[in-house]
Write a structure and sequence with these properties.
twelve-stranded mixed beta sheet, Leucine-rich repeat, LRR (right-handed beta-alpha superhelix), alpha/beta, single chain, disordered N terminus
Length: 412
């Protein structure tokens, strides 16, 4: 069509909304379909996730079969390296399987509550409603789906307090036979492990400067090395976010007495970890610091620690005893959630805040002494389908909380 100018079609169309309607009418654009939320859709999504979980199990079984086949062949360095790499692949698949299982359970609970338009307290309802109106679900407000709950770089004011007086300007980035590292005026920060040792000994000095910081994902990126042990020098003050995340073969952590801060997810998913000695120098532990350390048996929070971060020991399934010192002021949400075998908890006398779902579904926990210092207790902090009894002082905030939430309690 000679002389045709397409732009002339849009003369008089002032805004994007009008333009969109025009394009739809001309069949140049498909009308947008608003997503609807219903019990049926939630159940269908949950079923799809369950199917994905089963598929991931099949992949894990295939890996196991292949490893078994390789072990029956000749032994050499290449074969050993391949077996180790295959074994490392299991980790992300297992994490994925656990995550989609949680999401599927959440969607099933949402579907039931939407269908009934009511709240079932016996099932630890995620939603709440004070009237008979339909429940309005804002997906971004559901804890499982909040981006901050899985964000490794979530801000932490306590981190800054442990870094006062320390240089923050990188002078140079260098490499030796085992590490990439940043050089500061007063210290060294390790940023990536490139060595091949399974028994790692972190140096105390590089280039005549003390090694004080272990950088983000420093050892988590060493996928080809199955690290079994780590020796820390008495110069380390800071272990950044995700530094050892997923190092599944580490069985014991002897952290240095110089350590002040443990970052978000720093030691999460250490499946083999059984022994943990947190030194008396640690001021704060970040978000999910020891999340999913499923072999960990006991934890003592030292007298120096002020804050236990959200998700800090979430799903540490074999954790039996927790001793929280008098220095701790803040226990953030989900800190010990779903620690299935947790039997004994001692809470220090200066704790002020016990966040949302801190001891949620700790089904073996029968009784918790709540000190008088506590003046904030979050939603479902002591929920368990088997029931947790609180021991509180008469007239305390904890007593009122127990009454308001219909929890078992006794006064002393």
């Amino acid at each position: 069509m000679a002389g045709f100018n397409a732009s002339s079609l849009f003369e008089g169309v002032d805004d994007d909304k009008q333009l969109g309607k025009f394009l739809i009418k001309m069949k140049l654009k498909k009308p947008s379909v608003k997503s609807k939320v219903s019990p049926l859709i939630f159940r269908q999504k949950a079923l799809a996730m369950r199917a994905d979980k089963q598929q991931s199990k099949v992949y894990i079984q295939r890996i196991d079969y292949l490893i078994e086949e390789l072990n029956g062949l000749w032994q050499n360095d290449i074969q050993t390296s391949l077996i180790e790499s295959l074994d490392e692949m299991r980790g992300p698949l297992e994490e994925y399987s656990e995550l989609i299982d949680e999401y599927a359970s959440l969607l099933e609970a949402a579907a039931q509550e939407m269908a009934e338009k009511s709240v079932d307290l016996d099932k630890a309802s995620i939603f709440s409603s004070d009237d008979d109106e339909p429940i309005s679900i804002v997906v971004s407000n559901i804890p499982y789906l909040k981006s901050s709950r899985i964000k490794a770089n979530a801000p932490d004011p306590w981190f800054l307090k442990t870094q006062e007086g320390i240089s923050t300007e990188v002078i140079d980035t260098r490499k030796n036979s085992e590490y990439l590292y940043n050089v500061y005026s007063d210290h060294i920060e390790l940023i990536k492990y490139i060595g091949f040792r399974r028994d790692v000994e972190i140096p105390s000095i590089i280039d005549d400067k003390p090694v004080t910081h272990i950088g983000m994902s420093c050892f988590a990126l060493a996928w080809n090395i199955k690290i079994t042990s780590v020796t820390f020098p008495e110069t380390i003050t800071t272990i950044y976010n995700c530094a050892f995340r997923g190092c599944r073969s580490i069985r014991k952590l002897d952290l240095p007495s110089s350590l002040k801060y443990i970052g978000n997810y720093a030691f999460s998913f250490l499946n083999s970890l059984e022994v943990l000695d947190i030194p008396n120098s640690v001021v704060a532990m970040g978000y999910g610091a020891f999340r999913n350390c499923i072999g960990l048996l006991s934890v003592t929070i030292p007298d120096s620690t002020i804050r236990i971060g959200s998700d800090c020991f979430y799903r540490c399934k074999e954790l039996r005893t927790v001793d929280i010192s008098n220095s701790v002021v803040d226990i953030e949400g989900w800190a010990f959630k779903m620690c299935d075998n947790l039997e004994s908890v001692t809470i220090g006398d200066n704790v002020v805040n016990i966040g949302d779902s801190v001891f949620y579904e700790c089904i073996c926990l029968k009784k918790v002494d709540v000190p008088d210092s506590v003046d904030v207790i979050g939603d479902k902090a002591f929920y368990s389908r088997r029931g947790i009894a609180l021991e509180v002082s008469e007239g305390s905030y904890a007593e009122q909380y127990a009454r308001d939430n219909k929890l078992k309690y006794s006064t002393v």
